[in-house]
Amino acid sequence: MALMTGPMTGRQNGLRRRLRPFLLLLAPALAIAIQVKVPLFSEYFSFLEPPLLVTVYFALKQRDAIQALVMGSAIGLAQDALSSNPLGLFGIVKTLAGYFAASVSLRVDAENPLARFGFSFAFYVLHQILYWMVASSLLGQQISLGVGETLIFGLMNGAVAVPLFQLLDKL
User: Fold this and answer.
1) 19-36+47-170 sits in which CATH class?
2) Of 103, 97, 92, 113, which is closest to residue 163 (Cα–Cα)?
């Protein structure tokens, strides 16, 4: 991972502008649909968190904290609307994850597959910790964090993120 210093270069600025508007709408919608529908057919994929991966992808790619906040909150609220969770729970968590991912991307180049795996793993773990904190402190829910399960699922989401990010890059 190469540390970035100074202002953004023309190449980095071009990366931010290359994201197509249809991708900004289609990718989150598909990610939420996948998370809602796929576990109905096979519970082996219930570990997968595609809305988070899409949030992290756009935050790392755009390198803009404000856009990452908006994207994270929109994806999280849409996910809340389709789940049995209280409205705003995933909205808060995904907003924070998007913000942190965009903030990190300003300092670290996230274009290589190993970096993308690491970021996806780290942000999955952060997502789960934030979810646990918000659910237990604000809502008073008694849920277990499941550290071992979170780490294993984080590795699995990181493994899924690398080809997913490459696919989104090509689109």
Assistant:
1) mainly alpha
2) 113
Count of C-beta atoms within a 10 Å radius of residue 94? 32
Q: What is the pTM of this model?
A: 0.84
And the tokens for 92? 């808060």
| pLDDT tens digit sequence for 7-65 | 444 444 444 445 678 888 899 999 999 988 887 887 778 889 999 999 999 999 988 99
Cα within 13 Å of Cα(60), Cβ side? 25
Residue 108 sits at φ, ψ, to 5 deg, of -125, 135
Identify whether the C-beta of residue 71 lies closer than 8 Å to the C-beta of residue 102.
no
| 129: its two tokens | 């910790």
Q: Is the pLDDT of residue 101 over 80?
A: yes
Return d(Cα 163, Cα 95) in angstroms, integer: 24
Query: Tokens at residue 52, please?
Result: 């988070």
The residue extents of the domains of the chain are 19-36+47-170
Find out whether 95 and 134 touch, Cβ atoms under 8 Å. no
